[in-house]
TrEMBL record:
<dbReference type="GO" id="GO:0005886">
    <property type="term" value="C:plasma membrane"/>
</dbReference>
<feature type="transmembrane region" description="Helical">
    <location>
        <begin position="56"/>
        <end position="77"/>
    </location>
</feature>
<feature type="transmembrane region" description="Helical">
    <location>
        <begin position="121"/>
        <end position="146"/>
    </location>
</feature>
<feature type="transmembrane region" description="Helical">
    <location>
        <begin position="382"/>
        <end position="401"/>
    </location>
</feature>
<protein>
    <submittedName>
        <fullName>MFS transporter</fullName>
    </submittedName>
</protein>
<dbReference type="Pfam" id="PF13347">
    <property type="entry name" value="MFS_2"/>
</dbReference>
<keyword id="KW-0472">Membrane</keyword>
<keyword id="KW-0812">Transmembrane</keyword>
<feature type="transmembrane region" description="Helical">
    <location>
        <begin position="97"/>
        <end position="115"/>
    </location>
</feature>
<dbReference type="InterPro" id="IPR036259">
    <property type="entry name" value="MFS_trans_sf"/>
</dbReference>
<feature type="transmembrane region" description="Helical">
    <location>
        <begin position="167"/>
        <end position="185"/>
    </location>
</feature>
<dbReference type="InterPro" id="IPR039672">
    <property type="entry name" value="MFS_2"/>
</dbReference>
<feature type="transmembrane region" description="Helical">
    <location>
        <begin position="270"/>
        <end position="292"/>
    </location>
</feature>
<feature type="transmembrane region" description="Helical">
    <location>
        <begin position="328"/>
        <end position="347"/>
    </location>
</feature>
<feature type="transmembrane region" description="Helical">
    <location>
        <begin position="31"/>
        <end position="50"/>
    </location>
</feature>
<comment type="similarity">
    <text>Belongs to the sodium:galactoside symporter (TC 2.A.2) family.</text>
</comment>
<feature type="transmembrane region" description="Helical">
    <location>
        <begin position="304"/>
        <end position="322"/>
    </location>
</feature>
Amino acid sequence: MAEPAATVASAADAGAADEAESAAAATWRPVFAYGAFGLPLAFAALPIYVHVPRLYVEGFGLSLAAVGAVLLAVRILDALTDPLIGWASDRLANRKLAIALSLPVLGAGMFGLLSPPAGAGAAWMAAMIFFVTLGFSVATINYGAWGAEAAHTANGRTRLVASREGFALLGVVLAASLPTVLAPGDEVAGLARLTWIFLPLLCVGALVTLAATPRPQARRHSMQRVLPSLWAALVHRPFLLLLAVFCANGIAAAIPASTVLFFVADVLQASGLSGLFLVLYFVAGAASLPLWVRLSRCVGKVRAWFGSMLLAIASFIWAYFLGAGDTFAFALICVASGAALGADLALPPAMLADLLARDTSPSDARAGAWFGWWNFVTKANLALAAGLALPLLGMLGYVSGGTDPDGLQALSAVYALAPVALKLLAATLLWSLRYKLDFEGGLK
């Protein structure tokens, strides 16, 4: 009779844990508190991926090839350090302390990057991006791992991720719209003033999350050496499959992020509306988050993510056919592709958290290593997109601000058709692996 009694006790404990989490989720206070730090992190990320290339090309006279090379080199170096940061984070007792220590590095780097001194060149740009991305890496890896460790159920993990990404999209909208509002017609001055808003947001967002979010589950420190610990993540087959899909999909999203301002200014000839287009895109993403979360409960995260890829392909391919003055059509594309973005933001990290919960003991410390590789792929995608797309545009004859028809057609092809092809690859790969991911990873 001991065995049935133990089973009943275990079931009762599990039921009590679920009831406790449901009661906490009903207030949404810890969920919103956890998500708050996502706002300043995304606020910091958008200028690097969208504004910095054009700022240093047009504001400081660097060539597209030089900016692309700097972004490629620094981002690859930064990406290579992420698995090491993840491994080191697993050896720390307190993820909150790691996040707090990252804040001064991130804040100082952003100030130097967006408010450079006169005559700043490629070396200054490279150094400031390195500081920004170092602080950003320490913060995001520990922030993501904390969210994966803090929830006890699949729905709880999805809520935390959705909250984080919802706040992140709000941060992106602010970062996209404020430069134009702060200094109409002067992007350099607008980005410089943006830093004075970012620094208070960073402090407030971090304070809310660090003070009001519960600690994650107790875990033992990782005792593995760095290489065995990182290798153990890569040989975990469901994680590797998910990472491959995430990689192809991420590159598809990163190419438009690096070239959108050039496309709006030179193909649509509507540079004054660039902030509005970005706001439409990210607001649509934020509005779609609850829909993707609900759909994932009905059909599973894998199938919901696949559906979002098809939506992105069907909407974004039309950007190739746009020309000067087609602003309304581009606004519709921004809304439709932005709606697909909500799934890209909420579902893959939630799937990663599900894998960790399924295949890792609560007392193990592996989340940092897994999120380190996740960040590595994220940044490698961005590095490849900027490091290859921008020099390719130069080789194809595109010049920023130019009117040559062949150059503008090359810009349209790189901006619209290359991402569609990569998104098709990601969707095909995800669909071919759906049963393996569902069965081995428990991601239905």
